[in-house]
Specification:
single chain; mainly alpha; two-stranded antiparallel sheet; Perm_prefix_1; membrane; transmembrane; transmembrane helix
Length: about 230
Amino acid sequence: MESLQHYVDQLFQKYRGSKQIEELKWEVLSNLEAKVADLVADGLPLDEAMKKAKANLPSIDSIVGECRKVYIVPFVQELLQLGLLYGLIAWIVTMPLRIWGMGIYLSYSLFAICILIGIVYLILLGINRPDSSHHLTSMNVRFAFLLRKTGWMLWALYFVGTFIFTTALYFGSNLWFSTPVKLTGPYQFATIAVTYALPLLSILIPLWLHAIPRLILKYDAGEGDVIAK
C-alpha cells in the first residue's frame, strides 16, 4: 500500500534514519497494513479502513519513546501462541529422530514444552474476561529491539560454534592429517547429517524474540479497537 508507506515516511520524517528508527517504521507500517486488511475483510471500504487505522495509530513521539503502555493479556496470549506454533514445528521435525540417540530425548522434551505452553495458553484464555483484557503494563521498546538483536547474534554464534565443533569432532583428523574421509554406512552418514542439522532448529528462538517489538506496537494502548477484534 504505497499511500500507507508515504504516510509512515512522513510521520518519521523528523527523526534520524538510524537502524532502530527504520525497524520501528517497518513495524508501524506492517501493523497499519494488517489493520487495514482486517477492516476491509470486515466489510469496511478501503478508504474508510485506512482512515480508521491511521486514526488509531499512537503518536510517533510515544512510539519512538522507550516505554509503552501495552495490553498485557492479549500480548502474552499471542506470544504464547507463536511459541506453541514454533514448538510444534520443532517437535514434528524431530519425530523421525526418535530412532537416533539424543533425538529421543530432544523430541520428547519438545513435546513436553509444547504441553506446558499449551496449558498456560489455555489458562490465559480461561481468565480472559473483559476487565482483564484491558490491564496495562509498561514495556520498553528499545529493550525489545535490543533483545531481538541479541537473540540473533547469540544464535549466529551458537550455530557457527556447533558447526566448527561438529566438523572438528568428525573430520578433525582428516583435515589436520589429510587422511581420506571414511563413512562406514548410511547410519553413520545419517548421524553426522543430523548432528549438523539439529542446531538449525534453534533458529525458532530468535524468530520468537523477533516478534516481540511487533506485538508491543500491535497491542499498544493507543490502538484501543485491537482488543475488540
